[in-house]
Amino acid sequence: MTEYLLLITCLTERNLFIRTNIRKKVYFMSTTGIPAGDLEAGVQKKRFIRIIPYIFVLYIISFLDRVNVGYAALAMNNDLGFSSAVYGLGAGIFFIGYFIMEIPGNLIMARWSARLWLARILITWGLIAGLMAFVRTPWQFYTVRFLLGLAEASFMPGIIYYLSCWFQAKEQARAVALFMLAVPVGSIIGGPVSTSLLGVHWLNLAGWQWMFILEAAPAVIFGLITPFYLTDKPGQAKWLTAEERNWLINRLNEEVDAKKAHKAYTLWQAFADRDVIILALIYFFWVTGFYGFNMWLPTIVKGLSTTFTNQTVGWLVAIPYIGSLFSMILVSRHSDRTGERRCHTMLMLLTGGIGLAVSMLVVKTVGWQLVFFTVTAMGIYGAFGPFWALPGSFLTDVAAAGTIALINSVGNLGGFVGPYVVGFLKNATGSFTGGDVFLVVCLVVAGLMPVLLKKPGQLRKSI
């Protein structure tokens, strides 16, 4: 009965959005005689071309430096004598540092300068990521991963907030999804590249050491470029005409006014909001499953066959992420078109949980396991666009920046819990089965929790 009621709710929200959009499609002329539809299309094209590709590249670099430890583990653990428990703790402790600096970093960015703060993040994380090449003991491993988390904190929520300053609510799921396509693309590129680097031995350094050094360098390079390329606010955009700037500023201000007319949140009111707390909990369980899956996938795939080389593992791991590309694009487009967020998020997370359960606990052949690993990736990645459009549907300004950081920081504690619990259970039992059950439960819980949200995230009539 609950499922039928949720379906009826989602269909009602979708139909309301469509009817509202039909009423709003009025053709009018701008002050200079340019049709508003043409003006909007021009601004939209310029923003997507100017902003999305650049931050897409930045997030590929970020994600590679965050998860390449999963590929390094194929050789590093043996070279340094790290157990599964040591690796799991080191992989996850990154997110403790991330948690500590997340909210302060996003508030600094909102009150100061997005481009300068993002540049600082890129340069410091690049330098620290390179230090991973020189760790020798478990405590050195833990320390560098913790510092890397501190350095990178607020990058992802900072970008989400930055996009909310440039894109209207009806565009945000697609903008977020296009930016976050960098995660599966980074995994597709990172698998073959990282495992290929494991085979090199230059200047008495092992392949995993060169992998950390070479994959850290782009962060420093782009950190130096960022202050000169990105623009903080639409009013400063010289790459838009004066009319385009005014049109965009007016539209964004209209949305802010509409949200504030419904309720103007202070930062602390936003932190205490029931739906914000639920979103943080959803993201915690989701990220626990997400990073438990991502950090251990190379090791799990290598264990499927004794004949797999590291390079073979790199190519096979890319397959699930190719599927997730299509999922992210299609789900975000449908979410923006219908104006519905909650049910899209719920469906994708449940798909991820079911896919992981079948891949590890039901099917036993390599081919079918890869198929359901792909279903898992399509689910856990496909939810990103509609989920991150939810906070911006009712929050603005500093409240939005702080809340996005809060949700991301609490959620990313799951990035510590997931890899650590899987590593601990693998060490204790000699099998991935217990860890897999834990990750499946987390994804299913995350998938069911959106039904508790009182603000389903559909676009309001006034926006």
From TrEMBL:
GO cellular component entries: plasma membrane
Residues annotated as domain Major facilitator superfamily (MFS) profile: 51-459
Listed SUPFAM superfamilies: MFS general substrate transporter
Pfam families documented for this protein: MFS_1
The keyword Transmembrane belongs to this UniProt entry's keyword annotation: yes
Regions that span the bilayer: 51-74, 80-100, 112-135, 141-163, 175-202, 208-230, 276-293, 313-331, 343-362, 368-391, 398-417, 437-453
InterPro entries linked: MFS, MFS_dom, MFS_trans_sf
Predominant place of localization: membrane
Cell compartment(s), UniProt: Cell membrane
Molecular function as annotated in GO: transmembrane transporter activity
Signal peptide positions on this chain: none
Keywords, in A-Z order: Membrane, Transmembrane, Transmembrane helix, Transport
Membrane topology: Multi-pass membrane protein
Protein known as: Permeases of the major facilitator superfamily
Species per Swiss-Prot/TrEMBL record: Pelotomaculum thermopropionicum (strain DSM 13744 / JCM 10971 / SI)
Lineage: Bacteria, Bacillati, Bacillota, Clostridia, Eubacteriales
